[in-house]
Write a structure and sequence with these properties.
This protein is mainly alpha-helical. It is built from 11 helices and 5 strands; from the N terminus they run E-E-H-E-E-E-H-H-H-H-H-H-H-H-H-H. Strand 3 and strand 4 form a beta hairpin.
Length: about 450
């Protein structure tokens, strides 16, 4: 059974509708992964041009420790300076999402996933659970968490539909990408100090099919949902809140900048992946060509075979780097694109609560009667605003720390993968002459080599 973990983590797509299987005992456990933002400031971007020179260090989005003067200059040593030890955590809830199954009916096709839970919490009747859930069940859970905790940052789900056309719906790649995203979604909730104790979350993890269906039907009725929508629209019509605390104005400004930059990073990462894939597809054709060529050129046959072997090894190294991008970089960046949208929504909901309080205070100032009634309502709204502010403040600090850890871990992994990639390429061209620690001297090595005779393969 594969176990993955927490940290802020992709997110892609799919979904349909259909029945949910019964629950039964089982087991599973996730791990952890974290890491901080190496942020960037846009210098230039032209969609019509191939060159993308976009980034410089921006300390407004992250605080990155500088290297000490005594730090070794080798790439591996530099990368290791970013590593840090995770503090041991006392966890009592472990969740694994695995074993996707395809279901085909007369009207639809959908995927269910096994959700395995192990826990030592006293509020659970058993220590192990196993249920099957489909995408719409995860959507239901997310909507219930948002309704119960409007100013907490609910982890994002992968989109229901494929937007970029990178994979086919229901392909193995798509299903695995979605499984990882759903696994991360549940483990982020399990690791959250408040969301983890939500009753709907417990029901999602433990309920049998008929119990979950029955519980879903107990949600708010149509009139209640319409009332919530009307209040939200009325709040948006009122415009900006009058008495928004400065902290939330700063968070809003931060998230606007963050959203622009993370979307840009996501766009560039997808372009890099596409260019890498095109390069790989073109390069892998040259190995067989040189092999066939060697059969007709006896004098240079050995050299041509050496070139073919070198190209084959370079193709394998490129394929591994592409896998690293698709499994590590792209999902994390896209997850934080979704997080940026969620956070802007949380800030709007906080402002709606603040706006409702402001309107009641204005109404009280203009009324000569019913002041006692209005004063009571204002007192309740003041308490509601204070609770919303405290919840968002605490969750913001927690989210920002996790985001920085995720970004640091992600870009450190990318750097390490790139080092391995270039090491393998260099060793293909200069076999036995380049040590892994000498990669940082690559420019000097290549400039010297260009002045000498080409090496024999």
């Amino acid at each position: 059974m594969e176990a993955e973990g927490r940290a802020p983590g992709p997110s892609l797509l799919a979904g349909g509708e259909g029945p949910v299987a019964d629950s039964r005992p089982a087991a599973g456990a996730p791990g952890t992964a974290r890491g901080p933002l190496i942020a960037a400031e846009v210098l230039a971007l032209d969609d019509e041009e191939d060159d993308l020179e976009v980034f410089s260090k921006d300390t407004s989005l992250a605080e990155v420790n500088s290297f000490s003067p005594s730090m070794p200059i080798s790439p591996s040593s530099m990368i290791n300076q970013y590593k840090f030890e995770d503090e041991p955590e006392l966890r009592d809830l472990f969740i694994t999402v695995d074993d996707p199954e395809s279901h085909i009916t007369a009207i639809e096709t959908f995927i269910t996933y096994r959700v395995v839970t192990k826990t030592s919490r006293s509020e659970f009747d058993s220590s192990e659970y196993e249920v099957r859930r489909r995408y719409q069940d995860f959507l239901w859970l997310k909507s219930k968490l948002e309704a119960a905790h409007p100013t907490l940052i609910i982890p994002p789900l992968p989109e229901k539909f494929i937007m970029r056309g990178m994979v086919e719906r229901f392909s193995d790649e798509f299903i695995e990408t979605r499984r990882k995203a759903l696994h991360k979604f549940l483990n982020r909730i399990a690791d959250h100090p408040t969301l983890t104790f939500n009753e709907d979350f417990k029901i999602f993890l433990t309920a049998q099919a008929w119990e979950l269906s029955s519980h879903k039907k107990q949600g708010p009725g149509l009139l209640s949902r319409m009332g919530q929508t009307v209040r939200a629209v009325a709040s948006s019509v009122r415009g900006a809140v009058k008495n928004r605390p400065g902290m939330f104005t700063e968070i809003n400004d931060y998230m606007e900048t963050f959203s622009q930059k993370i979307n840009l990073l996501d766009k560039i990462a997808h372009r890099i992946y596409k260019e890498e894939r095109d390069y790989f597809n073109e390069m892998k054709e040259y190995g067989p060509i040189h092999t066939l060529w060697s059969a007709s050129e006896e004098d240079i046959a050995d050299s041509l075979k050496g070139i073919a072997s070198c190209i084959d090894r370079c193709c394998k190294a490129t394929e591994k780097r592409m896998a690293g991008l698709s499994e590590n970089l792209l999902p994390i960046l896209h997850e934080y694109v979704l997080y940026s949208e969620i956070l802007m929504g949380v800030l709007k909901r906080r402002d709606q609560i603040q706006g409702e309080l402001d309107s009641k205070i204005d109404a009280l100032a203009n009324r000569k009667t019913e002041k006692d009634l209005f004063s009571e309502e204002i007192g309740k709204l003041e308490d509601k605003v204070e609770r919303a502010n405290n919840a968002l403040k605490a969750d913001w600090d927690r989210w920002k720390q996790n985001m920085q850890c995720d970004m640091r871990s992600t870009f450190t992994n990318v750097a390490e993968n790139n080092l391995r990639f270039y090491e393998e390429h260099i060793l293909c061209i200069f076999p036995g002459t380049v040590d892994a620690m000498d990669v940082i001297q690559l420019p000097a090595l290549l400039s010297i080599s260009c002045e000498e005779s080409p090496p024999a393969f």
